[in-house]
């Protein structure tokens, strides 16, 4: 017989086994980390909550929008939207002004017809005096835009204006990582009649160069040194005014990258310029020499009737070589003074930075300044003040040249150019707007412009970081 199967005995409810209690010392399963909201999410949520918050607390909401770092991008978005609407209204309601665009198109026609002698490419306003990327960009516009091209080009320039505003806001935001730079400084950048006129009604090449320059500054702030150098050279490939930033660029490159890193950036800048020229103008060495002589002509003469900054100087003096030599001497002297005593606010100053960076072959591969010694605003401050010095000493400024420093003015004023005085920080932009908006320029408007430049440069000098005032953290 098969063996009997054993059956389990019935258990009373009291006998039913219960799971053992979890010990207190047993670690619970880790919870997934909660990610902080992204800046874009924060900006969107802040913008959506603004109407209700404004009704509940209008004063507090306004203060947050103007001064609170968490509200930097919401205000920047609002200003960008306002600038877009205003820009479209200007294009639709204000007549386009024909100045250099026809000449640019005539120069493009000669280029497309096969002319490769740069000195012979010209238009109704004179010969082509800009580097090759300028010519390539306007050639692309000539080929791609429907005829008449001006209206379509105006909307492209509006996009450039919008992009410049966003990049400028990014420069301000990154510069305020260790000391907040308030976002209300962006407000004057959307209110300038002269700036909107240059961007939307004239179609000059200056805005194209400057948007690339600000992109380069952002790249350098994020320590993308090679990309920043590449973008800097592209900007230089449109207009040579970008060279005004070069002294400041050399200073910050040496400080942050060292001697070899500085040389690396200079090689990138040089190769880009050679590539732009060689793309169409390097069939013979003679053609290349002609190209660089025409595109980077430092001996150009300027007409007295178009100068905006020296109308109070008699024409005979303005046209003299001695006047140009004096301005060049002042320019070099100011660069040397700032380079020696203001652009290296670390213990020991410029001498210590040079000694550190050139101490040995190994040291040349290292940054000349220790991490954390320089403020996050240092890099754009040096670049922008270098440009301001160059503009103040310029042989002649024309109306479109306002774009060379317009977006930098509030930044420079807040970081010393306004002497820490609200009257100057708010008043100098109004002074400069009045000077740039006076047509034709008068002795009074030129003197007003010069006074604003002198106040800003002297303020940057007086309030700038002095090496003797900076102490090493180890000594504190």
From TrEMBL:
Q: Where is the composition biased (Pro residues)?
A: 30-39
* A cellular component term, taken from the record's GO annotations: endoplasmic reticulum membrane
Write out the entry's keywords from A to Z: Endoplasmic reticulum, Glycosyltransferase, Membrane, Transferase, Transmembrane, Transmembrane helix
EC number(s) recorded for this UniProt protein: 2.4.1.258
Coiled coil, from the record: none
As its record notes, the protein acts as a catalyst of:
an alpha-D-Man-(1->2)-alpha-D-Man-(1->2)-alpha-D-Man-(1->3)-[alpha-D-Man-(1->6)]-beta-D-Man-(1->4)-beta-D-GlcNAc-(1->4)-alpha-D-GlcNAc-diphospho-di-trans,poly-cis-dolichol + a di-trans,poly-cis-dolichyl beta-D-mannosyl phosphate = an alpha-D-Man-(1->2)-alpha-D-Man-(1->2)-alpha-D-Man-(1->3)-[alpha-D-Man-(1->3)-alpha-D-Man-(1->6)]-beta-D-Man-(1->4)-beta-D-GlcNAc-(1->4)-alpha-D-GlcNAc-diphospho-di-trans,poly-cis-dolichol + a di-trans,poly-cis-dolichyl phosphate + H(+)
Has UniProt tagged this entry with the keyword Transmembrane helix? yes
How is this protein situated with respect to the membrane? Answer: Multi-pass membrane protein
The pathway is:
Protein modification; protein glycosylation
Span-the-membrane segments of this chain are 72-92, 155-175, 196-218, 230-254, 266-282, 318-341, 411-432, 444-464
Extract the ranges annotated as region (Disordered).
1-40
- UniProt-recorded Gene Ontology molecular function terms: dol-P-Man:Man(5)GlcNAc(2)-PP-Dol alpha-1,3-mannosyltransferase activity
* Cellular localisation: Endoplasmic reticulum membrane
List the InterPro entries hit by this protein, alphabetically.
Answer: Glycosyltransferase_ALG3
Q: Family assignment?
A: Belongs to the glycosyltransferase ALG3 family.
Known function = Dol-P-Man:Man(5)GlcNAc(2)-PP-Dol alpha-1,3-mannosyltransferase that operates in the biosynthetic pathway of dolichol-linked oligosaccharides, the glycan precursors employed in protein asparagine (N)-glycosylation. The assembly of dolichol-linked oligosaccharides begins on the cytosolic side of the endoplasmic reticulum membrane and finishes in its lumen. The sequential addition of sugars to dolichol pyrophosphate produces dolichol-linked oligosaccharides containing fourteen sugars, including two GlcNAcs, nine mannoses and three glucoses.
Q: Which PANTHER family does the record associate with it? A: DOL-P-MAN:MAN(5)GLCNAC(2)-PP-DOL ALPHA-1,3-MANNOSYLTRANSFERASE, NOT56 - RELATED
Q: What is this protein called?
A: Dol-P-Man:Man(5)GlcNAc(2)-PP-Dol alpha-1,3-mannosyltransferase
What species is this protein from? Answer: Cutaneotrichosporon cavernicola
Q: Which gene is annotated as encoding this protein in its UniProt record?
A: ALG3
């Amino acid at each position: 017989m098969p063996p009997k199967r054993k059956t389990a005995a019935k258990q009373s409810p009291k006998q039913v086994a219960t799971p053992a209690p979890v010990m207190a010392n047993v670690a619970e399963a880790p919870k997934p980390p909660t990610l902080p909201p992204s800046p874009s999410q924060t900006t969107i949520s802040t913008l959506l909550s603004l109407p209700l918050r404004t009704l509940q607390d209008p004063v507090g909401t306004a203060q947050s929008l103007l001064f609170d770092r968490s509200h930097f991008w919401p205000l920047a978005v609002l200003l960008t939207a306002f600038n877009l609407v205003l820009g479209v209204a200007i294009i639709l309601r204000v007549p386009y002004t024909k100045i250099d665009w026809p000449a640019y198109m005539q120069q493009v026609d000669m280029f497309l017809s096969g002319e490769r002698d740069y000195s012979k490419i010209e238009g109704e306003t004179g010969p082509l005096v800009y580097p090759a990327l300028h010519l390539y960009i306007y050639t692309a516009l000539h080929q791609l835009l429907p005829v008449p091209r001006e209206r379509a080009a105006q909307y492209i320039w509006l996009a450039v204006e919008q992009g410049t505003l966003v990049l400028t806001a990014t420069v301000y935001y990154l510069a305020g990582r260790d000391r907040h730079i308030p976002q209300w400084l962006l407000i004057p950048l959307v209110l300038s009649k002269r700036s909107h006129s240059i961007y939307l009604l004239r179609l000059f090449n200056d805005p194209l160069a400057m948007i690339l320059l600000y992109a380069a500054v952002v790249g350098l702030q994020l320590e993308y040194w090679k990309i920043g150098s590449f973008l800097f050279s592209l900007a230089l490939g449109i207009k040579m005014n970008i060279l005004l930033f070069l002294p400041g660029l050399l200073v910050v490159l040496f400080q942050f990258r060292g001697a070899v890193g500085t040389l690396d950036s200079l090689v990138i800048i040089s190769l880009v310029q050679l590539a732009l020229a060689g793309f169409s103008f390097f069939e013979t060495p003679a053609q290349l020499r002609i190209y660089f002589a025409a595109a980077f002509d430092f001996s150009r003469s300027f007409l007295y009737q178009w100068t905006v900054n020296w109308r109070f100087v008699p024409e005979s003096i303005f046209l003299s070589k001695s006047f140009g030599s004096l301005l060049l001497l002042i320019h070099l002297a100011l660069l040397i003074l700032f380079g020696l005593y203001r652009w290296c606010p670390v213990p020991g100053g410029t001498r210590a930075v040079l000694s550190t960076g050139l101490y040995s072959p190994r040291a040349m591969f290292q940054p000349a300044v220790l991490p954390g010694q320089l403020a996050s605003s240092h890099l754009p401050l040096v670049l922008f003040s270098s440009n301001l010095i160059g503009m103040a000493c310029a042989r002649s400024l024309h109306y479109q040249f306002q774009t060379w420093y317009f977006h930098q003015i509030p930044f420079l004023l807040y970081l010393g150019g306004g002497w820490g005085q609200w009257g100057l920080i708010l008043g100098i932009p109004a002074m400069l707007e009045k000077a740039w908006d006076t047509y034709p320029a008068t002795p009074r408007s030129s003197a007003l412009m010069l006074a604003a430049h002198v106040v800003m440069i002297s303020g940057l000098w007086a309030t700038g970081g002095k090496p003797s005032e900076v102490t090493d953290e180890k000594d504190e």
